[in-house]
Design goal:
Pfam families: DoxX_3, NAD_binding_10. InterPro entries: ComplexI_NDUFA9_subunit, DoxX-like, NAD(P)-bd_dom, NAD(P)-bd_dom_sf. It comes from Ciceribacter thiooxidans. This protein is of the alpha/beta class. The protein has 17 helices and 13 strands. It has helices spanning about 10-20, 35-40, 55-65, 85-100, 125-135, 160-165, 185-200, 215-225, 240-255, 265-270, 290-295, 300-310, 315-330, 335-340, 350-370, 370-395, 410-425; strands spanning about 1-5, 25-30, 45-50, 70, 105-110, 140-145, 150, 170-175, 180, 185, 205-210, 215, 235. A 7-stranded parallel beta sheet has the order 3-2-1-4-5-6-11, sandwiched between helices. Strands 7-10 form a two-stranded parallel ribbon. Strands 8-13 form a two-stranded parallel sheet. Helix 1 (about 10-20) links the parallel strand 1 (about 1-5) and strand 2 (about 25-30). Helix 6 (about 160-165) crosses helix 8 (about 215-225). It is globular and about 80 Å long. The two termini are about 25 Å apart.
Length: about 425
Amino acid sequence: MRILILGGTGFIGSAVMRRLAAEGHAVTGLARSVTRARARWPEVQWIAADLADLQTAEAWRPHLDGFEIVVNCAGALQDGLTDDLSASQQDAMFALYEAATTSGIHRIVQISTRVDGSGADLPFLATKRRADTALAESGLPFVILRPALVVGRNAFGGTALLRALAAFPFVQPLIHAESPVETVDVEDVATAVALAIEGAIPAGSDIELAAPGRLTLETTLALHRRWLGLAPAPTVVVPAIVGRVVTALADLAGRFGWQSPLRSTAMTVMEGGVTRRNDGEQPPFAMRALSETLSVHPSGVQDLWFARLYLMKAPVIVTLSLFWLLSGLLPLADLERAASHFLPLLPPPAATAATLLSCLLDVTLGVCVLLRPLARRALLGMLAVTALYLAAASVVEPALWLDPLGPLVKVLPSVLLTLTSLATLDHR
């Protein structure tokens, strides 16, 4: 079958894509950015499109032409610089259903979530709920799948945070340690999608996906810590005020385009637990428990590195931003002295202008690195500007390399910090 996967580059979407492609289906993925996806999965066709731009049936029809099945794996946790939940999770879906009725679509498989639990009125769950209701009322053949906490060989979002907290040195810091958690292997989600496409899960089904057994968040974390090969550690319950501060900062980061799993939506949902309804439909196959999922995929040192670096990413970016902001603002306190470094090369007016220009450049880079869509270019800009500064200083005042205060030597650690940021910038 010809299948279109929305959100094909995501954690769930990529697993579904691999499964369906392996079964011989002609798979096409749709995502906002597909440059790397084309390189990673050349056997799959790709469409670059933002769901937030597909707000009418007319906008959807060219993308649906020739497809028989649509699998919707797309989703976002919270509104932010690059995410509009109402547009992408609700309005785009309404337009999709309208277009699908006249585009030869035989079935829509929707990856949703439990929408009646804790935080049901949050935009994340409210938009999902309205989209699910509209699909059920559209007259289209559909299957809705509602996975619990999705785990697998790879990690993203909440599962990445679990690994990071599990690798925390000496202790396991937690909020809502006793919250109930049910998990589902991402490969089992892919199996459910495959069965829905085959018809083994009949049209009109609304199924919750969760392996048998209910854990606490603390136990879930302990299992991940053991999987990473680390000794057990005591759990430290994070004070509520600290949790609120962290959540507020994560929400602020979301406004700059960073998709932190510590945002308020995730914390609200986790407070009530991630579980299935007891009266929900069950899938027609057995699913692997978390312990089995972890044992099937033994961890390697790369998993430990990822877990330990995950929580360092934000402090590193903020530190770089402050470094460049201060390097651009402090010279303004004594502009004449700062401009004197240019005097061997430039006359006084030009030296002052060059100083002001360098300050503006530093401040611009310090701001841009905080904006996720601009972060990569800002980091590359930092490397280029640093190389220029070091080269110019080596020509004009080479003695600065041997200065007891080390003004040039101290720049080198910032270069390594910038390279580290570039290496850890990607999140999927």
